[in-house]
Write a structure and sequence with these properties.
4-stranded mixed β-sheet, 11 helices, 9-stranded mixed β-sheet, alpha/beta, 21 strands
């Protein structure tokens, strides 16, 4: 019997570029050291073609002749998730959910299934990592499920495709894409070829049958979805579940959404019964804020249309070493160094022999320039050991010349601060004229960092 010839192919994990030899830099995306070796057989080239009927060639349509109507969405009854999705689940969409192990991806999707079956939707949950009893244990902890919830433990794509076509569910959950395999592809599950083939099959099922499919994806140590980057290009929506699995809060962020904004976030809290929505993130982030402590101030960041207040903490002390240590948690380390240089040059604070630590309490990671003024005031407050009034909130971008530049949505930030009980807001002077309602809080406009330093007690 003739032996099957196996060919070695190299794939770029970042963009899916294929090459017959290994290369240090990918010609497609210019990424270094991204090629991985895979061995494929000739039958892999025909993978996914068996059983498909060749369709007639489509005819081009005039743009003016295409009828447009608003897509009816399926609500998940989880306001935080619906906010990120843009109003709910769009039928016939393919959604990718990524996150660290143990962060709560499976729990979130199981809660979605519970709400969907309560709306008389047929839901199919396919797991390649857990047994039926394990899923049942988690389901009992979350709450009761209706009769339209179906479970399947399978990793063979052929069987999964046949099951979905036979059941025609409204929503399908695939947990996870890295465990699925196609028999016609000779590489191991989780490889570039298998992940790409599996995603292609689920894409055809979603668009052809009208079912909405959620795909769970593992992430690499860099925080991106494992597998080829083409995976994110194929799906309609990419959601990342962020947060420390040892902490209680979780943040759901949309990095791609063909049916809505990518600026919205959803905040959840991990509890014994599953994930609970956090309706007021500002109150959650400010819980436990110390009073009368130096190096502490409240700032505001806009996440889409939602303003979120959080505490900025800074600690500046004399170093015991020849080279001072600088550390930032929750924000950009280089941005903190830049702001400290501005304080030294424009304000005259000599911190070259001081250790400096900046922390955004609550665990959120924010890189918006609007928090620059808060960071600078917190550092100066700690350096001078003078506290800032507990009812003061500050936000504004700082330039290298020490000027305080304007920020967007200034009125929404002030309204959120007033709602949380703050009486004074230090804002860029150029934004004061944009504020219509100035009666609820004392508005202080500053044009430079030096002006802001005058309000440190």
């Amino acid at each position: 019997m003739a032996k099957t010839k196996i060919t070695t192919v190299f794939y770029c994990q970042n963009c899916g570029y294929e090459s017959s030899k290994w290369m240090g830099q990918c010609p497609g995306c210019r990424e270094w050291n991204s090629f991985v070796e895979e061995k494929i057989s000739p039958k892999a080239a025909t993978a996914g073609i068996t059983g498909q009927v060749r369709r007639e060639a489509g005819k081009p349509s005039r743009l003016s002749e295409i009828a447009l109507q608003e897509e009816e969405r399926m609500t998940t009854h989880m306001r935080e998730l619906d906010r990120v999705l843009g109003g709910g689940i769009v039928p016939a969409s393919l959604l990718l959910v990524g996150g660290d192990p143990g962060i709560g991806k499976s729990t979130l999707l199981l809660q979605v299934c519970r709400h969907m079956v309560a709306d008389h939707k047929k839901v199919l949950y396919i797991s390649g990592e857990e047994s039926l009893k394990q899923i049942k244990i988690r389901a009992n902890r979350i709450g009761g499920f209706a009769e339209n919830m179906f479970l399947l433990c399978e990793t063979n794509l052929g069987i999964i495709e046949e099951t979905i076509r036979h059941m025609t569910p409204d929503v399908t959950i695939i947990d996870s894409i890295q465990t699925m395999y196609q028999e016609a592809v000779s590489s191991a599950p989780g490889s570039v070829s298998q992940v790409r083939e599996a995603t292609n099959i689920f894409l055809q099922l979603a668009k052809g049958m009208g079912t909405s499919i959620f795909i769970v994806g593992h992430v690499t140590k860099e925080g991106t979805v494992a597998g080829p980057r083409v995976l994110e290009h194929m799906v309609d929506t990419v959601l990342y579940f962020e947060g420390d699995r040892h902490a209680s809060y979780r943040i759901l962020r949309g990095v791609k959404n063909r049916f809505g904004s990518t600026n919205e976030i959803g905040v959840f809290e991990m509890q014994e019964q599953g994930l609970a929505e956090v309706a007021n993130p500002s109150e959650f982030m400010l819980d436990g804020k110390p009073e009368g402590a130096s190096g502490s101030i409240v700032s505001c960041s806009m996440e889409g249309t939602r303003p979120i207040l959080f505490e900025i903490q800074a600690l500046v002390c004399r170093t015991n070493f020849g080279f001072p240590r600088r550390q930032a948690i929750g924000t950009d380390f280089n941005r903190v160094n830049l702001l400290m240089a501005v304080l030294e040059k424009r304000v005259g604070l000599q911190m070259s022999d001081c250790d400096a630590y900046v922390n955004l309490a609550g665990g959120m990671r924010i890189t918006e320039p609007a928090i620059d003024l808060g960071i600078a005031m917190a550092i100066a407050s700690s350096f001078k050991n003078r506290p800032i009034d507990d009812k003061v909130a500050a936000f504004g971008e700082i330039g290298l010349s020490g000027e305080v530049r304007g920020v967007s949505m200034i009125e929404q930030r002030i309204q959120e601060a007033v709602k949380m009980g703050f009486t004074t807001c230090i804002v860029p002077k150029v934004c004061v004229k944009q504020i219509k309602n100035k009666e609820n809080a004392k508005i202080i406009g500053v044009s430079s960092v030096q002006d802001a330093m005058d309000y440190i007690v």
